[in-house]
Amino acid sequence: KHCKTNQILVDDTNRIMFCFIPKVACSSWKTALLALHEGKDFAEEQPLIHESGFLKSRGIKQFSLLHSYEKVWRLYAYSKFMIVRDPLERLVSAYRNKFEQGTNSYFNQKFGRHIIQQYRANASAHELQEGDDVHFDEFIRFVVDGNAEPHWNTYQDLCCPCQIHYDAIGMVDTLQEDSS
């Protein structure tokens, strides 16, 4: 299976590549990468870190947009790392963040309505229209059936650890220790 590299960020200044994984402290690590890149604190700008084009405007590149020869050189010469988390904890976190409170209208409209339609017998017209009451078992069935989205895709699909030799793979549970 071909692996995509959309999640890999490149800091040419420090010769670092970081594969960010949603629901695995990615906001904190994107902010840290930017702070390292520019040599200053970006804690106040953390809410902007996921905005389209924000990191690019600061000089952080997306690996997947580089030319082939640029990719090969960086894969050889740069330090590469990713952070992981227990996959089941990550799924629970994604569900809670995107569906549990029913407040994320983007996810309700894009996924919630479809999940309810496909996995809930006797769904009400309101549930089918709003998609804001997805049950955990419905969400899990949706994921297991292969419905992709970065917040619940596998680490292999997001970061290609079987194809890319990462210099470090940290774990959320031991982040303090792994960060050093």
TrEMBL record:
Cellular component annotations (GO), alphabetically ordered: Golgi membrane
**Ranges annotated as spanning the membrane:** none
Q: Does this entry carry the keyword Phosphoprotein?
A: no
Record carries keyword Transport? no
Spell out the molecular function terms from Gene Ontology: sulfotransferase activity
Instruction: State the source organism's domain of life.
Output: Eukaryota
Keywords assigned by UniProt?
Carbohydrate metabolism, Glycoprotein, Golgi apparatus, Membrane, Signal-anchor, Transferase, Transmembrane, Transmembrane helix
Q: What is its main location?
A: Golgi
According to its UniProt record, the EC number is 2.8.2.-
Q: What GO biological process terms does the UniProt entry carry, in alphabetical order?
A: carbohydrate biosynthetic process
Output the Pfam families linked to this UniProt entry: Sulfotransfer_2
Q: Where in the cell is it found?
A: Golgi apparatus membrane
Q: Which InterPro entries does this UniProt record tie to the protein?
A: Carb_sulfotrans_8-10 (IPR018011), P-loop_NTPase (IPR027417), Sulfotransferase (IPR005331)
Topology with respect to the bilayer:
Single-pass type II membrane protein
Give the protein family.
Belongs to the sulfotransferase 2 family.
Question: What is the official name of this protein in its record?
Answer: Carbohydrate sulfotransferase
Tell me the organism's taxonomic lineage.
Eukaryota, Metazoa, Spiralia, Lophotrochozoa, Annelida
